[in-house]
Amino acid sequence: MDGRCDGLKRNSWRRFACLQNTGRIRETNDYLAIICWDTVAILLPFHRVLFPNIRIHMKFSALTLLLSVTTIAGAVPLFDGKTFAGWEGDTAKTWRIENDALVGGSMEGNRRNEFLMTQKSYRNFSLKFDYKLTGTEGFVNGGVQFHSERVPKSENEVRGFQADIGASYTGFLQDESRRSKCPAAADRELVKSLEKPGDWNRYEIRAEGPHVQLFVNGVRTVDYTEKDPAIPLEGRIGLQIHGGCKAVIFFRNLTIEEITTITCRVHPFSQSHEFRQDRRHQRGNLVERVITKWMEPTNRLMQSSV
Predict the structure, then answer these.
(1) Which of 54, 145, 205, 218 could form a disulfide with 127 if both were Cys (CB 3.0 to 4.6 A apart)?
(2) 53 or 38, which is more confident?
């Protein structure tokens, strides 16, 4: 058994080097491991040694290895800087494009809430953008919707989560037109020290399943986990200018990184592995193939030992 384990170790090191060189595995937050018979033959800590696009977590039982692999796609622009391609809303009166930015509202007054919505829905992602809000009267406010949808039979309203902006609510997580509550409040004094009123600021919305985090100028203001299973964890993204104010809101540099998590239960005595992923796409399939290929020598060793 010792000789076989030594051979497995050498083979695994070669496989890791190959995957490292090709960039197919880019980060391990916990460990890469090889199972030999019913014990761990070798446990290799590679904490943040590569690139940040893939995170691997592992749990062990006597004869099973459970891997959770999270892949993060590259950042994709949500706005091309020139057109409303991929968006829908009141582009005749409320929303316009100026200097590569999406602009909503008017200093002459905004009668009601208005939203510019993506045509596509998103589930797990990191959304980053710059915003600027200027106003003189009323409830000077806006925000960015996510996991949202338009309210049926309404001309303008949207329901879902919102990363709030302005009127002392920047950095707050709201539940727009749904539960009439603020699921997670930010520290106003912290946000006051971070935000530059009337100037450009940077916002990030990070949603992974029920876990939501908000960041203003690089500092986290909300860390929230949704407990209600009835709340949708997928939906459209939307930009808001609030009604009842004389204000204009600007958005630019909107990019999104979609996140996919795959769970793989590896059985050392079997060539078959159980894969489960929240959303299947090409990158997810690549990870499946990498894991399956990785486990081939271990499977052959286990079968030859029986």
Answers:
(1) 205
(2) 53
Does a structural domain hold residue 294?
yes
User: Coil, helix or strand for 9?
Assistant: helix
Residue 159 in domain = yes
Residue 74, pLDDT score: 86
In SS3 terms, 249-284 reads as EEEEEEEEEEEEEEEEEECCCCCCEEEEECCCCHHH
256: Cβ–Cβ under 8 A, 6 or more apart, which residues? Answer: 75, 76, 78, 122, 125, 126, 127, 128, 237
| Better pLDDT: 277 or 26 | 277
Task: For residue 156, give the CATH number of its domain.
Answer: 2.60.120.560
Contact partners, residue 153, CB within 8 Å, separation at least 6 = none
The answer to whether residues 37 and 130 belong to one domain is no
Q: Which domain holds residue 283?
A: 2-64+267-305
Judge whether 202 lies within some domain.
yes
pTM for this predicted structure: 0.73
In the predicted model, what is the mean pLDDT of residues 281-291? 49
- Please count the residues of the chain: 306
Residue 93 has a pLDDT of: 96
Helices (H) and strands (E) in the chain, counts: 3, 19
Angle between helix 2-22 and 282-305 (nearest 10): 170
Which pLDDT score, from 0 to 100, does residue 260 have? 83
Give the Cα separation of 143 and 184 in Å (integer): 15
